[in-house]
Every structure is written in C-alpha cells, then in structure tokens.
Backbone:
C-alpha cells in the first residue's frame, strides 16, 4: 500500500509540473519598436538579426530576423538616408569617412524566443507574409530542442 501511495503521489506531481521538454509554451509574439533593440548582427545568410530584452534584465531574450533589401558604402550624411527608403529601417556601420548601409525589410520574417537567455534560440515562428504580428505566424523550429511541438500547433497559431 505504501508503494501504491508513493506512485500515485509521484504521478500527481509529474502531471501538475510544467513540461518544458514536452509542452508547447504560450509565449506572445510581439513586434517591438526597433528603437528598443539592444543589438543587431548581419549574418552570412544575408539576414539581419535584431535582439531585444523584453524582461529588461540586460540579456537578449527575443529576436527578429529581417531580409536585407539593399547594402552599400556611402559618405552621405546619415540623417538623409531614412527618407530615401519609405519607412524601411536603416542600419549602418561607421568606417570613418564612409558608412556601410543596410536597408532591411519593414517587418520581420522570423520571430524567436530565447527563454533561458543562454544565447540559443528556443522557439521560432515564421511570418511568410512579413505583415507583422497579427496571428498568421506559424511555428518554425525549436533550435535548442527545449520544446517539442504537438501536431496541432505545427501549423497556424490561430
């Protein structure tokens, strides 16, 4: 009887604990303003990754991934550049007398969470329409393998 009670108690604890390795989290996608970024990086795949700190602890926990539409080197004043691209964000790297300019897509292609803020993305969503966060984003991957996604969530999030 003692073993049965122990097994029942253990089963109850396992059923009541969150299943980080097996469940699908309910994390809200957001489209934070680029002015709130804590960093950005141009990757060799031609995409620009923008990092955000949504919980304000100094570590990146949310990322957006954008297409680079145009890149070039210029000596033009930076204040003039955003007006040329009709709302598309402009990033740059200063190389002294010239700047390397990166014009990116207005809305992200991917949204990614780094739940434990270890530098490896835990959950990625794809927005094939690049129309901002509006519910049509779909699960894409769990690069860290922290989450296994049930079949009912493998498509549209609605």
Residues:
């Amino acid at each position: 009887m003692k073993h049965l009670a122990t097994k029942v108690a253990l089963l109850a604890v396992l059923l009541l604990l969150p299943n980080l390795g097996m469940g699908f989290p309910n994390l809200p996608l957001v489209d934070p303003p680029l002015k709130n970024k804590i960093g950005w990086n141009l990757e060799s795949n031609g995409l620009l990754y923008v990092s955000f700190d949504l919980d304000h602890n100094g570590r990146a926990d949310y990322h957006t991934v954008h297409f680079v539409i145009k890149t070039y080197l210029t000596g033009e004043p930076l204040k003039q550049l955003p007006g040329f691209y009709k709302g598309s964000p402009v990033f740059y790297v200063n190389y002294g007398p010239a700047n390397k300019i990166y014009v990116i897509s207005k809305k992200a292609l991917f949204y990614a969470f780094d739940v434990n803020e270890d530098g490896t993305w835990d959950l990625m969503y794809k927005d094939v329409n690049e129309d901002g966060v509006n519910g049509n984003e779909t699960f894409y991957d769990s690069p860290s393998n922290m989450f296994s996604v049930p079949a009912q969530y493998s498509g549209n999030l609605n």
User: Anything to note?
Assistant: The chain has one domain: 31-147. The longest strand covers residues 62-74. Confidence is low (pLDDT under 50) at residues 1-22.
